[in-house]
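Quick one:
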Amino acid sequence: MTAEPRDSLSPPSPPAPLDPLDRLLAERACERLITEFVRRLDLGEPGGVAELFTVDGVWEWAEGDRRIQGREALRAYFGSRPADRLSRRVCTNILVTVVSGSEATATTYFTTYRMDGHTGGMAPPRIPTQVGHYEDAFRKVGGEWLLSTRSTFLAFAGPTERATVRPADAS
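Output:
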């Protein structure tokens, strides 16, 4: 069967609607990527975040000149995270929109608790370092959903605190 020729001025046909199960599976795969991203950063595999992106993937901040593109650059960037950094990110309000069988977008709210100079044990409570949201674009490559772009938008931000050794801990 051959396709009908299309007038070059007419818009392309919309993609065929996704089966509800395929849509649900795509949404879940993208949600899992969002969660895996912060798990790797917080629990000791920061360089591994790069594997969650497409080969040409981009991570950027809406304000400033921070834009990292490509898996190798992402691996180097995230892998350079200070070894003594303790962080936990809380992600909520994850809304994935499946655009087609191979493209999706998402918005996720996040709160980051972070300190440098951590030497082990439980840290005293602190206020969040960042509160904002991610805007993500996903692409299905070789049957696997990956991040193609992550943009970070901060509503609240402050410096990362450095842990101080308390006199009782110094002995």
